[in-house]
Design brief:
By secondary structure, the chain is an alpha/beta fold. The protein has 11 helices and 8 strands. It has one domain: TIM Barrel (Alpha-Beta Barrel), CATH 3.20.20. 42% of the residues lie in helices and 16% in strands. An 8-stranded parallel barrel has the order 1-2-3-4-5-6-7-8, surrounded by 5 helices. β3, α3 and β4 form a beta-alpha-beta unit. The structure holds phosphoenolpyruvate. The site of phosphoenolpyruvate (PEP) has 14 residues, from β8.
Length: 250
Amino acid sequence: MTRKFFVGGNFKLNPASLAASTSLIEGLNKAELDPETEVVIAPPSIYLIPVKESVRKDVKVAAQNCYFKESGAFTGEISPKQLVDAGIPYVVLGHSERRTLFHETSALVATKTRAAIDAGLKVILCIGETLQEREADKTAEVCQSQLKEVVDVLKEADWSNIVIAYEPVWAIGTGKVATTAQAQQAHADVRSYIAKAVSPAVANDIQILYGGSVTAANSKELARQQDVDGFLVGGASLKPEFADIINARK
Ligand code: PEP
């Protein structure tokens, strides 16, 4: 398997002050991290630049969202071009909290993904089913329909700048992690959809992360699954155990 292990930390709307953000980054800077893991952290937008300037150089920085326009009358938004100009290489798009709390549709997520890729960003694209959808045996269908919107707008674009994060909504922030079998099955289904809808080569190369209540304790077994290429970590990315998750394949 040649895909590089990738761990993202989604800080969400945390921590609550610049001082706390600085001390979180100081902790990460001192940690021993597996050099074989690609590490990307996503602080709130107000801390993007200070974090980028203070974090160790082997850890990259991501915005948690962006808009699809370059500039203009879009109060409260940040453009992909502004992120690139500020030296921020990644953006997280389609997180379930954006979809649920801020009513972002898969079509909007796809438009943002295209704009971000065109501007030169790398995208961590989040997909995943609700509990109701899982119980109705619709996990693969839901993931495919979320991905299809992106496939339709990306067409010939360079998929090497996309990382997919499979994050079952019922597992995010709930303490209920997917079983290794559930995660592996969902990842394999996503990969086989990408093989059909884009190409077998893209499917083979694309990193598919698992997200949803990942901890140091459950990360090692999940990391051993064939199609689990890393994690997108929320709550635990604010704790020292984030380093253990980064080192899950060590
Ligand atoms: C997330 O926010 O992407 C996430 C997976 O959160 P948590 O790890 O807290 O479940």
